[in-house]
Predict the structure.
Amino acid sequence: QVQLVESGGGLVQAGDSLRLSCSASALSSAAHAMAWFRQAPWKEPELVAAINGPGTTYYVDSVKGRFTISRDNAKNTVYLEVNSLKPEDTAVYYCAARRWEMAKTEYEYSYWGQGTQVTVSS
């Protein structure tokens, strides 16, 4: 059974950094596109960043230059380095996976983690 487990969230101040991790089990991360979504209160889920097996990445415009997605296929783990955090980055961050190519909507991802809360105070 596929499991995605996120960690690394927390309460930080504006300008701080965090590293979120997503550990995948029973899933070949090399054959799956991995993504980070976030959902703020009262808002729809938003794709933040995605990476496919060969390492091609995608970022939503609002995080370009601040967030970096990476993967360690040997460890079946995906990371999201989040820098220069802003209060508007406050959300629950979810890891998601789907076979092969990345996609931009949450409906296209088959597997989800339980989420990790990131709260940025001003």
